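stuck on this fold:
=====
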Amino acid sequence: MNLAINIDHIATLRNARGGRLPDPVDAALACERAGAVGIVCHLREDRRHIRDTDVERLRTTIKTKLDLEMAATEEIIGIACRVKPDLVTLVPEHRMELTTEGGLDVVAERAHLTTAVKKFHDHGIAVSLFIDPVPAQIHAARETGAEMMEIHTGEYADASSAEERAHQFQLIKDAARLGKTLGLGVNAGHGLDYDNIAAVARIPEIDEVSIGYAVIVRAVSVGLESAVREMHGLIQSA
């Protein structure tokens, strides 16, 4: 299983003082040195953390995969088609949310998402849809033409009891298996940390996990490269 690192909160820290440090691009390079196979960033409509220039610099600097998380809006689609990340991950986005609160409703938005997927493919960009582990959403994701899905693991990560966590974990396992059966690449992410990653890392159908906040928090204590290496080690040992 591969590890991609989301660097949004490096930009959050930079923006808190309005300067240029810490630099998300420097952070991305440190993540690559520590074993990350991809760099994830979310270009939000309100630019609360990652900025347009960050995406442009990442595109020309990093050596691994650039995964641009984004809402399927006309403005951000245009930026993505110009910058050409290796992958776009389409996510729902709400102005007042602290972080992404759930998966796309692909069933309801299938026509719009299908159009967006085609546009990305016309520009040579692969597409993943961030969805809850719900069979109807997985089937709908496949019908849009996207080649990947990312399973929203937030309910699993936030479970308040062992029983609820076990239930949510089973949903993730079933979703990963269904996605593979339908020919989709399967990624997973949201809320994963050093305590809950091992079980997810043992699901054979999941190709890659995307982790950000937990790694950045750990980096405060041990440094970014060490934090990424620790997470990478947990995934490989699992």
Observations:
- Residues 2-237 form a domain with the TIM Barrel fold (CATH 3.20.20.70).
